[in-house]
Amino acid sequence: MVDLSGSILTLLGISGVGATIAKGTDSQRNTLSAENRAWLLRRNWLPMAKTIVDPSNATWRDFFSTDGVFDVYRYQSFIFGLVVIGGLIAAGVNQLSTFVVPDTILGIVGLSQLVYIGGKLVTPTNISDLNAAISALRSDEQKLKAAAVAAKQGQVMSLAEAIPLVGQSTYDAYRQKARDVAAIFTDATGIVVADASLEPLVT
Questions:
Q1: Residue-averaged pLDDT of the chain
Q2: What pLDDT does residue 1 have?
Q3: 3-class secondary structure per residue, the chain
Q4: What is the domain range of residue 33?
Q5: Residues 37 and 98 in one domain
Q6: Are residues 74 and 112 in the same domain?
């Protein structure tokens, strides 16, 4: 077993902690909530089957991009990794316990991590806007259904029955909002929503 020097462990720790925090930030800010995802699946806005990723389509550009967009952090990590690996090769594997990563490199990597994570926290995302829009539309759908049930004083059997109960203007307002949300959804995902999927579910 070969011992690693403290500076190598520090470098690995900085990269590992930064990557973990960045991944958690992405998960929270770039993922639909479970309730919204279920709502989209029930209305066929999202396909049930997951898309299978074909590894044969992987390219070297994937090392430096996230979701097809150039990622400065990944590029920097790759370059710093090459520098450290080059230094380790030059020093020899037997010198790992005494190999010292310059403080300048550690400082640059640490600062890069802070700037990268800070940028993720303050940059607005399309998904966060989409989450909010879908939540509002879900709420409007529930209000429309509740209004129809209250007007009938019983279970509504179809949308055609519900529209006269809540009023054409209320239904039209919901449809317009659904079209707006569908536009945001298509912009964020590239999936076009069928017009029939914009109807509220009232049964």
A1: 75
A2: 46
A3: CCCCCHHHHHHHHHHHHHHHHHHHHHHHHCCCCHHHHHHHHHCCCCCCCCCCCCHHHCCHHHHHEECCEECHHHHHHHHHHHHHHHHHHHHCHHHCCCCCCCHHHHHHHHHHHHHHHHHHHHCCCHHHHHHHHHHHHHHHHHHHHHHHHHHHCCCCCCHHHHHHHHCHHHHHHHHHHHHHHHHHHHHHHCCCCCHHHHCCCCC
A4: 6-122
A5: yes
A6: yes
43, 11: one domain: yes
What pLDDT score does 46 carry? 84
Number of domains the chain is built from: 2
Q: 92-96 long-range CB contacts below 8 Å, 24 or more apart?
A: 93/2, 94/2, 96/2, 96/3, 96/4, 96/5, 96/8
pLDDT-wise least confident of 38-47, 114-123, 173-182: 114-123
Contact 82, 63 (CB under 8 A): no
pLDDT in tens, 72-84: 666 666 766 676 6
Closest CA relative to residue 188, chosen from 116, 119, 117, 131? 131
Kindly state the tokens that stand for 189: 């995902």
Closest by CA to 10, choosing from 128, 74, 93, 106, is 106
